[in-house]
Amino acid sequence: MAALLSVRDLHVSYGAIKAVQGVSFDINEGEIVTLIGANGAGKSTTLNTISGLIKPDSGSIDFKGESLVGIKPHKIVERGLALCPEGRRVFTQLSVAENLDMGGYTRTDAENAETIEHVYERFPRLRERVNQSAGTMSGGEQQMLAMGRALMSRPDLLMLDEPSMGLAPILVDEIFEIIRALNDQGTTILLVEQNASMALSVADRGYVLEVGHISKTGTGRDLLHDDDVRKAYLGG
Ligand code: ATP
């Protein structure tokens, strides 16, 4: 079966800085796949390029068998691929409900009314805070809102960029449980994380990204027990 997302020999640069230098990976329908790697390895650049926010120098990105290169970000969302960006980037002046509405811009009002119910069931804390402005919410609540907003487009593939960043351990556990539950309900997930241990525990497969290229790949379990990965990313 063809992969849901297939990235081949991707090269991306910012002026003279070569951030991604020949990255290739696949994601099959139903999987959780994680990209782990140190600061600056090119993880966010990879996700932002897949989302259409950055234009690659070369390489291919195929989603559901069609190329995404050169397609506008909102069209990519329409095709079923959503990004929950690093640092959440919620609209701080807008309420929870308004933020979720923004996430549903590719869908009809009737679809959004139904999806928002699912989001509130998944994140009861958002329902309690529908009218609260997003900027006044805690980091964990903002992460839930950012994930809820991405889910409003009903993506087939959800890309999460560092969802655990800056969160207390108990909230990290909660976010990872939600990731697992979303996947159980049919959403394929591409997870970028600095918390390699949590990411590899939840992932079917992982790719290690090192200064712009993939240095290793395997099942989440194998990478979790790999000596090099343990030394470099799991604190020995
Ligand atoms: P982190 O975990 O710290 O977010 P990352 O693996 O996501 O790191 P990227 O953010 O993709 O890494 O950055 C890859 C490289 O590209 C880094 O050297 C970074 O400094 C550079 N870079 C990222 N964004 C820009 C930009 N807008 N302009 C110039 N260089 C950039």
TrEMBL record:
GO:BP terms for this protein? L-amino acid transport
Keywords for the protein's UniProt record, in alphabetical order? Amino-acid transport, ATP-binding, Nucleotide-binding, Transport
The record's listing under Pfam families reads: ABC_tran
Q: Cross-referenced PROSITE patterns, in alphabetical order?
A: ABC_TRANSPORTER_1, ABC_TRANSPORTER_2
Checking InterPro entries in the record gives: AAA+_ATPase, ABC_branched_ATPase_LivF/BraG, ABC_transporter-like_ATP-bd, ABC_transporter-like_CS, BCAA_Transport_ATP-bd_LivF, P-loop_NTPase
SUPFAM superfamilies assigned to the protein according to its UniProt record, in alphabetical order:
P-loop containing nucleoside triphosphate hydrolases
- This chain's protein is named Amino acid/amide ABC transporter ATP-binding protein 2, HAAT family
Species for this entry: Parafannyhessea umbonata
